[in-house]
Every structure is written in C-alpha cells, then in structure tokens.
Amino acid sequence: MFVDQRGFTLIELLVVIIVLGLLVGLVGPRLFGRVGQSKQAAARAQIELLGAALDQYRLDIGAYPNSGQGLDALQRNPNAPNWSGPYLKKAVPKDPWGNQYKYRCCPGQNGEYDLWSEGGDGAPGGEGENADITSWDSSQR
C-alpha cells in the first residue's frame, strides 16, 4: 500500500527562509530610510502651512502672536481685535514624530518668528531623521 505524502522537505524550507532573510536584509533598510525622509518632508510642509496661517493672522491683527500666545492663537482668539480666525481648518498639528512644534516670536532669533520641529529625537540639533526642521533654513527644501 502506497501513501501519497505531499509537502516540503526540511532543506526546501531552509532555502526559502534564507532567501526571504536575504531579501529583507537588502530591501528593508532602503524602505525604512524612505520613511524618515517622508516624515521630514511632511514636517517641512506643515511648517509652510503654519507659516501661511501666521502670515494671515498678522495681516488681520497687525502682528504675529507672541510666544506666550503661541500657535494656539491660530485656533482660538487671544482677545485680539480684528481676529478673523480660526486660521487653520483643524487643530494645530503635532510634528510627524508626535511632538509639538516650537514657536518663538516677536522677534524670533532667525526672523520675525521662529517655527521648528526638533526631528525624530525631540532634541535640538541632530542628523538624518533627528535633524531639526526649521522655518528659517531654506537649504532644507
């Protein structure tokens, strides 16, 4: 009596596991590098949009919100005359790493206002995904 046994041998399974491991090892780092770049691009875009909202606020009020009022002045009237907000459709977003954007004004150290994200590490400075994304550094674009 002959029993038909179908399946994979141990050698075949090991070969498949090794091939999959090589693919993950070669392709994985390239894909994960793109994730960091896309988060930086998203932060730059959000800073641009927040900058446009700050400019609209300034046109209505005559000055940017001070550091104490912060970016919340774009959503809620800080008892300013001529406030025509909200200047954002939704609440002030967090950066792509889940941290609040930093804002300093009137004046900022690098312009009329400073707006920045401290990157993936949430600390000043850094390189790669941990680099700061700022409103004043045009070389980041």
Tell me briefly what this model is:
With 141 residues, the chain is mainly alpha-helical. It is 37% helix and 8% strand. A hairpin with a 7-residue loop joins strand 1 and strand 2.
Q: Identify the overall geometry.
A: elongated
What structural class should be given to the helix and strand makeup? mainly alpha
- The percentage of residues in β strands lies in 5-15%
Please state the CA-atom Rg, rounded to the nearest Å: 25 Å
Average pLDDT, rounded to a whole number, is 86
Q: Give the assembly state of these chains.
A: single chain
For the secondary structure, the number of strands is 3
- List the helices and strands in order: HEEE
Q: Quote the distance from N terminus to C terminus.
A: 74 Å
* Helix share, percent: 25-40%
Described by strand count, sense and barrel closure, the largest sheet is:
3 strands, antiparallel
Q: Note poorly predicted spans.
A: none
